[in-house]
Amino acid sequence: MIPIVYAELRHLAAHYLRGERSDHTLQPTALVNEAYLRLTKLHNVDWQSRSHFLAMAATVMRRILVDHARAHAANKREGFREAISLEETILVSAGRSPELIALDDALSRLATIDTRRSKIVELRFFGGLSEEETGQLLGVSARTVKRDWRVAKAWLYNEINGK
After folding, report:
1. Is-contact 68 26, C-beta < 8 A?
2. Which domain of life is it from (predicted)?
3. CB 155, CB 121: distance < 8 Å
4. How many domains, the chain?
5. Half-sphere exposure of 144 (CA within 13 A, CB side)
6. Which structural domain range is residue 107 located in?
């Protein structure tokens, strides 16, 4: 299935990485290749459709990006020995890595409250699936996906921004 959707996966990976910091070490091709390696380790998966495959690939890419962001943050903390003020820490930015980690944490909390809305966010944001494709994969209408997508985005915004 990967050769069939490789270009789409690469486009999706490029979309993810477009908003990352400029010195990000992962490139779209590397992200797709790592996702491929992880997907090939999955056994006994009955791929239902293109959407099902893209949903799995999106989940795998999300995990890779979050793992990479967490490793980058850990390396940054470990190498940091000099004390700085709170104002200076606000000025230090590592790109989107902290945002990605915050989104992943909030999405995990949402999954404990509402699995379907969490899955909709994953499929729409990380998988790039349309409302129709997402609805088909989850067995709900596109209208339900649209409504849940809106509610989930608002919930995540409030959760991440502490409002």
Report:
1. yes
2. Bacteria
3. no
4. 1
5. 13
6. 2-161
